[in-house]
Automatic annotation (TrEMBL):
Pfam families: CXXC_Zn-b_euk. SUPFAM superfamilies: MAL13P1.257-like. GO terms for molecular function: zinc ion binding. Transmembrane segments: none annotated. This is DUF866-domain-containing protein. Belongs to the UPF0587 family. Keywords: Metal-binding, Zinc. The keyword Zinc applies.
């Protein structure tokens, strides 16, 4: 089993506490490109992992957030994901881990930000919960202060912990 940390970094102006909108009622579908560690085949489609779903693993080995059988070598791969309690703050310049991932038989090689994120205004506490980071940036106006708020230079990193 390999443990990964999925981290986010970026420049936050006028907002803080950036995190995915990820609740049982509105689960975030974490989208990744993956590679089988047994045969080194990169899966041709991006996969989605929802931390609230559980899938049976073959051979009665329990459950995982994601179970996948490689079409090349037929090896069964799995991953469990857990959300950390961390969020990205406006005054941080280092990557912050937002997910812990236990993977068997697969490497996560790229994150695709398909989903909504949320942050709150640093001065007003206004909640922005419809943030789209597919272009690695987001701009809006905090209506309570009439000031522009933004998230720019967003970077996603996946590292072994």
């Amino acid at each position: 089993m390999v443990k990964f940390l999925f981290k986010v970094s970026g420049v936050l102006e006028g907002v803080t506490d950036l995190e995915p909108v990820d609740t049982p009622q509105q689960p975030f579908e974490y989208t990744f490109r993956i590679e089988c560690t047994k045969c080194r085949t990169i899966h041709d489609k991006a996969i989605q992992i929802n931390r609230f779903e559980k899938h049976e693993m073959g051979g009665s080995r329990g459950e995982a957030s994601f179970v996948f059988r490689c079409k090349e070598c037929k090896y069964e791969n799995s991953a469990n994901i857990e959300r950390t309690k961390e969020t990205l703050h406006y005054d941080e310049n280092k990557p912050v881990p937002i997910l812990e991932i236990d993977a068997r038989g697969l490497d996560l090689i790229e994150f695709i930000p398909n989903g909504k994120f949320q942050a709150k205004g640093t001065e007003t506490g206004t909640i922005f919960n419809d943030i789209d980071l597919q272009d690695s940036e987001w701009y809006d106006v905090d209506e309570k202060t009439n000031e522009e708020v933004s998230i720019t230079e967003v970077k996603w990193t996946i590292s072994r912990s």
